[in-house]
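Pasting as-is:
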Amino acid sequence: MSDVLIRNEPVPSTPFIAEGVTISLAAPQNRYSLRARTAQTLETLLNVKVPKKIGATEGGIACLGPDEWLLRAEVSATIPSGAGLPVAITDISDRSICLVVEGPRAAELLMTGCPLNLDNFVVGRATRTIYETVEIIIIRDDEDRFHVEVWRSFAAWLWAAFTAAASH
């Protein structure tokens, strides 16, 4: 048996550059799905402030629903298990990857297949949505920079769709 598994990413490591937009694979990171009835429970467990408004982000944590958060952290980060507390913490690090879409045409590119008007999507906002038929999570990091979380199994298709749209 192999002691080390080598994971090949489903998208190229070299950024795709087109007029006004760059699409690249984000650096590896840990991802956790956090579920709790209240943000306060997570704040107590994690010892950090947790966003309470759906769509808000703070310190690498995005509030995706009334009882659901996404925590993105450094690969070396560890978080408490939550044992004994009314929370569910699931490590989803291997399930998803992140594509970074940036440049003056970033919102325009994403809107080619996403039903949201991202021109009205403020910096720091996060949401679960779709790009054509693929479920994604969009986090707006800056005016012209978006993180797009996608399940690894759909990443190659999404990369192809993004690069095709960016080429036109």
